[in-house]
């Protein structure tokens, strides 16, 4: 009988932790389609041709949409004015690359040209590569 209470307490604890990590409170994200599957996210919504799928989603949810592709968050921008704002005013924010563990361990702690974040080090590497 004691084992049942221990497993019940453990399962409630794990459910609580999972819900805490999966909740999206506090994240100021654009709207997204509701049925995001646990592992693949919104990949089940994509059908060829992709531009029609994105067009239909933008007609339904607005010009800026957030989608979950696996464990990565993707923001789709389909309005020309929003694209202009993203690539002129906030270009440094969108210039960085995602940080994977491969870049940390095989890319010498993000110091090679492919994995380093945008900044002085990356500009120096780019100059060196062009010479």
Number of helices: 6
Distance between the ends: 73 Å
Instruction: Give Rg in angstroms.
Output: 21 Å
Can you count the beta strands? 2
Brief descriptors of the model:
mainly alpha, 2 domains, 2 strands, 48% helix, oxidoreductase, Cytochrome P450, Cyt_P450_E_grp-I
Would you kindly provide a written description of the structure presented here, covering whatever features stand out?
With 131 residues, the chain is mainly α. It is built from 6 helices and 2 strands. The protein folds into 2 domains: 29-95, no CATH class; 97-131, no CATH class. The longest helix has 21 residues, at 2-22.
Concise structural overview:
Helices cover 48% and strands 9% of the residues. The protein is built from six helices and two strands, in the order H-H-E-E-H-H-H-H.
Set down the secondary structure blueprint:
Layout: H1 2-22, H2 50-61, E1 64-69, E2 72-77, H3 80-88, H4 91-95, H5 101-105, H6 120-130
Antiparallel strand pairs: 1-2
């Amino acid at each position: 009988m004691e084992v049942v209470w221990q497993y019940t307490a453990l399962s409630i604890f794990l459910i609580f932790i999972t819900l805490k990590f999966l909740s999206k409170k506090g994240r100021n994200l654009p709207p997204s389609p509701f049925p995001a599957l646990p592992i693949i996210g919104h990949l089940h919504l994509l059908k060829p041709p992709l531009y029609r799928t994105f067009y239909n989603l933008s007609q339904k949810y607005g010009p800026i949409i957030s989608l979950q592709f696996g464990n990565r968050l993707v923001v789709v921008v389909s309005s020309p004015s929003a694209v202009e704002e993203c690539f002129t005013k906030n270009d440094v924010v969108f210039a960085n690359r995602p940080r994977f563990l491969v870049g940390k361990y095989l890319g010498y702690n993000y110091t090679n040209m492919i994995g380093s974040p945008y900044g002085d080090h990356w500009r120096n590497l780019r100059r060196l590569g062009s010479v």
